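It would be a great kindness if you could assist me with a short task in structural biology. A protein sequence and the structure tokens that stand for its backbone fold form the material at issue. I should value your view on which stretches of the chain appear to form regular backbone elements. The record follows directly beneath this note.
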Amino acid sequence: MIRAIVTGAGGRMGGRIVTLIAETDGIELAGAVERKGHPLIGKDVGEGLGLGRTGIPIGDDLAGCIEKGDVVIDFTAHEVSAAHLEIAAAKGRAIVIGSTG
């Protein structure tokens, strides 16, 4: 089982990725991260996205949950993606970075 952490989980694309993970065999959500001050911080990611309770709260610090995952799926602004890349690399985690712009 692949354990994924989604950054930008409260956004349009990040939320869609969380939904796809919930629907896909062989991968499970291990963490969800959003920017500091996001209104979903501290809320259950599934409830925040209308998927039902997952037991995974949305946090604001990738470094605080990186140990829980095998891969980071990042859908944040490029400035933040660079910092997330450094965190993932330092912990030996794979990272997939997506962008719409």
